[in-house]
Structure formats: C-alpha cells, structure tokens
Amino acid sequence: MSEPVIKLIKVKKIYYLSKEIQVHALRGVDLEVDRGELLIIMGPSGSGKTTLLQIMGTLDKPTEGRVIVDGIDVTDFSERQLSKLRREKIGFVFQFFNLIPTLTAIENVMLPMLLAGKYTKDEALAKAKLLLTIVGLEESRWLNVPRKLSGGQQQKVAIARALANNPSYVLMDEPTGNLDVFSSVRVLDTVKWLNQFYGQTFIIVTHNPEVAEMGSRIVYIRDGKIMETPKVLLRIESLKLPEEEVKERLKAQMELLKIELKSAKRRGLSSEILDEIERKVVRTEEALREVQS
Amino acid sequence: MKLSQLKVCLIYALKDLSSRKARTAFTILGVIVGIAAMTSLMTIGTGMKVEIEREVSELLGSSIIVRDREKSPMPIYVAYVVSKLPGVNETIPLIVGMASVNGIPTVILGVPPMRVTLYAPIIEGNSISSDLSYEALTNRETAKKLNVKVGDQVTITTQASPTPRVFTLVGIVAQGSLMQMALAGGMPVIVVSLRQAQQLLNMRGLVSMIIVRVVSPSYVDPVVTSIETYYPAVEVVTQEDVLRTVSSIINTINAVLLAIASISLIVAALGIINTMTMTVREKTREIGILKAIGAERWHIFMIFIGQATVMGIVGGLLGVTLGFLSAYGIIEHYLPRFLRIPLQIPFVVSTDVAIEGIILAIVVSAASAFLPSWKATNIRPVEALRYE
Fold this sequence. Notes:
Chain A: InterPro entries: AAA+_ATPase, ABC_transporter-like_ATP-bd, ABC_transporter-like_CS, ABC_transpr_LolD-like, MacB-like_ATP-bd, P-loop_NTPase. Chain A has about 290 residues and is of the alpha/beta class.
C-alpha cells in the first residue's frame, strides 16, 4: 500500500520539431502519486501539463528519466506491453469525452473489459450496468449512443469506462472543459464520491480553479517543471449527496464487488487480492448500514 | 490472440459498418458487380462448352467425315469402297451447294432420303419419299422467308441448271442443329434427295462429303488410317479433331470474357481500398481512443480487415446469386433472341463456381484492405487524440 501508483523520476521530454528547433516540454519532473490521492495538476497552456499526462498515461515515452507504475519500471516496455498496462492499470477521461460513437453507453463501458479478456460477456455487462449506476447515469440512457447523450452524461460514461478494469489510477484531462456549470458539478461530485468511498486514485489536469478546489493535493507546472509540491492534504469538505443516491451507489458497489470476487476466483488470483476485495465488501457493508440507520 | 477478443473486434467492425450504411452498400455493390460478372460469364461459358461438346459428340459419335482436301466434289464410289472397309457400319454421302429458290439464294443439301433425319428431325409433314421424287424439305425460317408452307411448290434453279425445276414442299425440319449451322451457317436451307441434288448441281456420280459410321469408337483410328492410305487426296475429320478445334475456340472466348469481367473486380478492389482508406482517416481519433483504453495493434487490424471481409462475404454471396440469375436470363432469353445461337445451353448452378466466387470476393476484399488496415495500426494515440 505504501507503493506509489505512479512515480516519475527526472522525466524530460524534448520534441524535435526540426534539426535546429527543439521544444523542452518537460525539464526533469519528479512526481509521486499515492494510492487514494486526488491529485490536481495545474498550469497555464504550454506549461507541459498535457505532455506530463501523456507520459503518466504511457501514451508517450520520456526522452529521459523513468516511469514507474505500481512499482514496475515501464519506461522500456514494448508497445504491446504498454497496451496491456493501459488496459489493466490506467483509466482515461478526456476533455472531449472520446467515447466510441458507434457503441451505446453500456457497450462503451464494456469494451475495455472485453478487450482485456478478464470478464465474461455477462460479467462485463453486469459490471457496466453497476458502474453506470455508480457514476449516476440514468438507466434510460444506457442504450443510447454518445451523440444522443448530453456532455455531462457522456463524461459520466467516460468515467465509468475508465473504471471498468479497476485501474490503479484514472487520468483526467480537463474533465469539465467542455461542460456547462451544472454538468461540471455533477461530474466533479461523482469523482469526489468515487475518491472518498471507493478510494479511487485520480490525477486531474486542469486550469480550472473550481476543479482544483476538490483535490487532496495540488501541484503546479510551469515551463516543464513542477514548481512546488506542498504535500499538504487540503481540507476536504465532506460530500453531501442525497441519501437515496448514496444508497443506490453503495448497493451497486456491493454487487460490483461480488462480480469482482467471482471473476478473481475464476482467474485463480492470489489470496492477497481476494482479501483486498473482501475488505472492500466489509467497508461497503458498513457504509451501507450507516446510511440506512 | 484470443478468440473472445477476436469476436469483440468483429462485432465492433459490424457496428461500424452499419453506422455507415450508404458507403458500405456502395462498396459492397462494387464487389457484387465484379463477382456477378465473373459468375455469370463462367456459368455461360461452361454451359456453352458442355453443350457444344455434347452436340459434336452426338452428331459425330463414332462417325468420320471424309471430304476432298480442296473441297471439290469427289466420286461417290469412294463411299462404296469405304463401306467395305472392316469396322465400317455405313457410309452416307452428302451434297452441299448453292441454289436459288423462288429467286432467293439458298443452300441446297442433297441427302439420301432414308437418312434425312441425320440432318434434322422432321417436325411437320413427311420426309422425301424417294430418290427420284421432286420433293423438298426446309426449316421454318426459310419457309417464312420464301413465304411457303407444306404442300406449296417451289422453283429451284442453280448455275449448273438454270432451267427452273418445280419441287413440292413436303415437310419442315427442326431448326437449330449443329449440323445445320455447320453446313448452312445462317442461310436459308432446302433439302432434296441426293439424286436430285446431283442433277441440279450437275454433279452426277459425285458427292461433297461422306459421313462414315464405324461399328464402335475403337474402329475410328484404323478406319481413318485405311482411308488415308487408299485416298491420299481426301481429308478425314474425326470427332476428336472437331472437339479440339471447338474447345480451343470456346476456351479463348471464355478467357477473353473473364479478362473483361476481372476489370470490374479490379474496380471493386479499388472501391474497397478507397473506402477503407477514408474510413481509417476519419477514424484516426477513434483509433487513438481505442489504443488509449488498451487496444493492441492486432485488435485495430482485425477491426478494419474484419470490415472488409464482411463486405467481401456479403458482396460475394449477393454477387454469386446475381451472377447465376443473370446467367439464367442471358441463357434463356438474351442468347436465343439476339444472337440466334441454335444451342440449348444448359443452365447449371455449379457449387464450384459459387464457392470460387465467394472466396474470390473475400480474398480480393481482405487483400485490398490490408494496407489501409496496416496504416491504422500505426496511428499513434498521442497524435490521434490531438486531432480535433
């Protein structure tokens, strides 16, 4: 548990636009993100925050330095290994939602699970439904294709998709950049809730101070360097979601954990992982009792 | 590569195809046209070959045609001598010449009255009663052209015998045998007895050709050898010779037709290349998303190759169906009416042709999509996601 989910060591990224012109997007970044954090990365345009996100998402490789995910150095991984890594450990949420336009909401959530091949089709379907419940998408929207969903709804689907394979961390690139105020609040509430109740690690790149407010830690990036890392936990105001909604989400979470347990047993995973899931079940049960009493 | 993942990719491909119905339909249409052209030409070509070979063997069977090398008349006693050769069943002398019937140029045929049916079956009236009678037969088309019917009289003149002679039309023979085509081409035909033809054409004691029937096919070669030894001036044509010539002509025609049909298949391939290239370009961003959420290169490759393969399967199935339908239409309606080919070409739905057509459609589609699909796998997620 003490292991950081992702650790960057002296990461540099240089883009060669031509022989003479080089752009130093990152000039030696050291960063550690612990499990359960809700890290905000802030910085003006051109500060290198998108490059940082891409390197943390293994979509791009650093020119120098190491990238360590869950204690494993993935810097020199092959393309194929990186695909597997992204599939299993990293969730992505983009500013422009980036759902697959030909697939329904539920199919978009199922896709990463089916590509990973860890769940049967039925399990993936059940899990997708529960994840959509947890992110708070109305059931009547589940069979809609993205273009029939509002921005906020699409972003919820994107969050559910990012969570599909129980990633170690979820990367978000301006998740509210394309949303109206009301939808932004709903999406941020969902993120906050997932972080608090689910212990899900989030790394959010933004230049929106409202988004930054909810973070447990904020780092600033400027000219390819991290300016300050005050490892101070910010005051987190406790979330006030309607009781009914919390109950519904917790129930979905219980169901989800049951599927997880079944799938983990079927795949013959280690008892450590099984215990971990069991612990989550107990925690969820407690939370559920608390809400009901 | 897991089967379940392959299935996911194929389902994805199908959903993608159905989201672009018009483009998919037009691309498939290209494949349909190409495969249909191939299938129908192969069906017609094979049918034509089978039918012509059947006609030739039915007509000649274990027969041999004997004629003068220079195509000039030869003495009838040759027929008599040949009939005495061992293994020869019978000899039928024939005369072919030009005449004018009621003023219209006509091919005149002299046949022994007993052997008229060798030329064609009689479908109306009677046969010629004897060698000496002034009786004639013709086919429907000639009768129509001459504006005569059974029982009417016709006047025949030739260069050798300009004095008009009056014959009675006693019967109508069926039209469209290969023999008729071979002897008269598309010209009007009148059939009279061998003796009358000899008089009309001033060929007393002479014949144009002799058909020799042997007891069994094994006698063909020895009889041919004997005839060639006795009469070096004659030309001997066997069924095998005719078949060889006919087959090589038909094969050449078929090859040319298939080459033309393959052009439409090339166009179909270009259509697929075009569609897939456009699709990949439009989906740059989507490919980036797929890679970001963990799709591997082969997943992407299968999604695009899968689309082309599905279009190939659908295009192949429909193309083969359309090909058989149009072959049926051409054989039943177009050929008899416009080309006046007097052949009853059999319409055969060959499973070989069908399977070949479908496989060809799939192979051409998949091969055409290979390069665009490969390019899709090379798209880098970072660049694709920047795409807006």
